[in-house]
């Protein structure tokens, strides 16, 4: 009998540990709360339900079409992947991640998350190509430099350890882990462990994959980010200032979600108001030299040129005499 009781207690302890790691209510507390809700009046039941552990909520993007695809916004207790197609697009992917962090601080203006700093765990090789975060630029982008911390571990194993420790401490509003490409030592097992850490701590983790391909991971959502031409700066009368540069813009593709097909949208980031706004195709300018949106009559002369260099013709030899 004593051995059976010890075995039951061990099993209950294992169940509670697994529930904490996965972010689910502990079975014993959930059962006690269920009994209490059945006996107490509805007004007291509401107070008890608030004391139970629950999800920390979502971070809405502020664009209806995208928030609908995200089912309310980005979960604040999960892993979200932000991917750039190449290192040349590292600035766009990094800017989108920082914009999300700034929006998170704006949403949690009077809470503990607003006072908690942002931790950026940078990849050494990626910083050689894309550079380091710049304090003045971070401030202009809508995020306070005092609330921004950066770690530069030399090895990927050290970066993963720092990310797990930061999530376990729950001392940061968001943890941004930057990796380059698709390293062999960071696969589905490692992303699963980080996702469980984020779930247990109730803190978001942004995996910033610079110049990487799509691969299986435990991220609930995955974005592909490309730079987009910034629209012209708007004037108070509703017109735009010709030749000016407005808010930074991103071309987003929601690659992984519960939707059957990817969703692509262009957003601009207003750092002053800390909000995103969609950019319509009619408002979106083209990159210099782009002619995909032009009709056949408007194509530049270079559009008829072949894609590959043509073979040279006959080479003539001239007499070197005067």
Structure commentary:
The protein has ten helices and eleven strands. By secondary structure, the protein is an alpha/beta fold. The strands form two sheets. It has a nine-stranded mixed β-sheet with strand order 5-4-6-7-3-8-9-10-11, sandwiched between helices. Strands 1-2 form a two-stranded antiparallel sheet. Helix 2 (about 25-40) runs antiparallel to helix 3 (about 40-50) and helix 9 (about 155-170) packs parallel to helix 10 (about 190-200). It starts with a helix and ends in a 44-residue tail after the last strand.
Largest sheet: 9 strands, mixed
Please state the structural category. alpha/beta
Q: How large is the radius of gyration? A: 26 Å
- Poorly predicted ranges (pLDDT <50, ≥5 residues)? 28-55, 291-304
Report the principal-axis shape. Answer: globular
Query: Helical element count?
Result: 10
Helix content: 25-40%
- Residue fraction in strands: 15-25%
The counted number of beta strands is 11
SSE run:
HHHEHEEHHEHHEHEHEEEEE
Q: For the residues shown, what is the average pLDDT?
A: 78
Distance between the termini: 116 Å
């Amino acid at each position: 009998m004593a051995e059976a009781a010890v075995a039951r207690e061990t099993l209950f302890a294992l169940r509670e540990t697994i529930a904490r790691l996965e972010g689910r209510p502990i079975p014993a507390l959930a059962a006690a709360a269920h009994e209490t809700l059945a006996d107490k009046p509805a007004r007291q039941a509401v107070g008890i339900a608030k004391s139970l552990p629950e999800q920390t909520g979502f971070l809405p993007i502020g664009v209806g079409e995208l928030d609908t695809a995200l089912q309310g916004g980005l979960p604040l207790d999960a892993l979200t992947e932000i991917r750039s197609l190449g290192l040349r697009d590292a600035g766009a992917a990094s800017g989108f991640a920082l914009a999300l962090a700034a929006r998170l601080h704006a949403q949690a203006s009077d809470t503990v998350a607003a006072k908690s700093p942002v931790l950026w765990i940078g990849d050494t090789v990626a910083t050689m190509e894309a550079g380091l975060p710049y304090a003045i630029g971070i401030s202009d982008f809508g995020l306070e430099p005092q609330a921004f911390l950066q770690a530069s571990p030399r090895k990927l194993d050290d970066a993963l350890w720092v990310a797990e420790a930061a999530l376990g401490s729950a001392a940061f509003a968001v943890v941004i882990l930057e990796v380059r490409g698709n390293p062999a030592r960071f696969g589905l097992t490692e992303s699963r462990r980080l996702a469980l850490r984020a779930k247990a701590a109730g803190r978001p983790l942004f995996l910033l994959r610079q110049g990487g391909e799509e691969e299986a991971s435990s991220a609930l959502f995955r974005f592909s980010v490309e730079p987009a031409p910034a629209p012209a700066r708007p004037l108070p009368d509703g017109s735009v200032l010709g030749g000016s540069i407005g808010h930074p813009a991103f071309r987003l593709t929601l690659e992984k979600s519960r939707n059957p097909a990817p969703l692509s949208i262009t957003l601009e980031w207003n750092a002053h108001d800390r909000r995103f706004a969609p950019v319509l195709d009619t408002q979106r300018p083209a990159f210099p030299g782009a002619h995909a949106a032009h009709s056949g009559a408007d194509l530049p002369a270079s559009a008829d040129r072949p894609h590959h260099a043509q073979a040279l013709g006959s080479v003539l030899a001239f007499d070197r005499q005067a």
